[in-house]
Design brief:
- 49% of the residues lie in helices and 8% in strands.
- It has helices at 9-22, 29-47, 79-90, 104-114, 122-133, 139-152, 160-163, 187-197; strands at 57-59, 65-66, 95-96, 165-166, 172-175, 182-184.
- The strands form two sheets. It has a three-stranded mixed β-sheet with strand order 2-1-6. The chain has a three-stranded antiparallel β-sheet with strand order 3-5-4.
- The longest helix is centred in the first third of the chain and has 19 residues, at 29-47.
- The protein starts with 8 loop residues before the first helix and ends with a helix.
Length: 199
């Protein structure tokens, strides 16, 4: 679309208004999608970090992730990114990436919960986690990108930073969502979460 800029904004606006006035677009899915996302963006901008507009995060008894106030669908992630996401939900105080090797046992326990139905061989889990926490590679950053992409399917753009793992290199990384919005139904994960939050 190289001719995209060849008409002025005012001309484009006039054409658009005429089209909207004279045509019924209520059955055109593409147009409805665009209009819907524009309206949704406006709503998000107005209420930005308003707690009422933020969805709870529910972790069910099988370790599946749901943001029910945005979508009834499960937020699917591969086992390793899901392990990291749950780890940071539990560690609301934040953890430096370079010190994650201190939490190997906990990461291993979380991985076993999320990979339960697959019965993954213990050595393989350990190798995946060792690779993840190895300070010299970028595996943890790649993993955070996968988490972000999975969440982007349901979370409004303006609130993404609250649901994703954020932080500067060399400093603590954390998930900014308020603990009161996190509901954990899995007994083991809830125990880990409560230990950190009920001091």
């Amino acid at each position: 679309m190289s001719d995209k800029l060849s008409i002025s904004y005012h001309t484009a606006k006039r054409i658009l208004l005429e089209l909207l006035e004279n045509n019924d677009f209520s059955t055109d899915e593409d147009i409805l999608k665009i209009l819907g996302s524009v309206v949704q963006k406006e709503i998000n901008n107005e209420t930005n970090n308003d707690k009422e507009e933020m969805s709870r995060i529910i972790i069910d008894k099988n370790g599946h992730i749901f943001l029910p106030d945005y979508s009834p669908m499960e937020v699917k992630m591969p086992y390793l990114p899901k392990t990291v996401f749950l780890f940071f939900l539990i560690h609301k105080e934040g953890v430096e990436f370079k010190s994650m090797y201190n939490y190997m046992h906990e990461l291993y326990e979380i991985y076993q919960i999320v990979a339960l139905e697959k019965n993954t061989e213990a050595g393989k889990i350990r190798r995946s986690l060792e690779n993840l926490v190895e300070p010299v590679n970028n595996r943890i950053y790649e993993t955070c990108s996968i988490i972000r992409r999975s969440l982007a399917n349901v979370v409004p753009e303006s609130l993404m930073e609250i649901y994703c793992i954020t932080g500067r290199r060399g400093e603590k990384h954390r998930i900014g969502i308020d603990s009161s919005l996190i509901e954990i139904e899995n007994t083991k994960l809830k125990e880990m979460f409560d230990q950190r939050h009920n001091h």
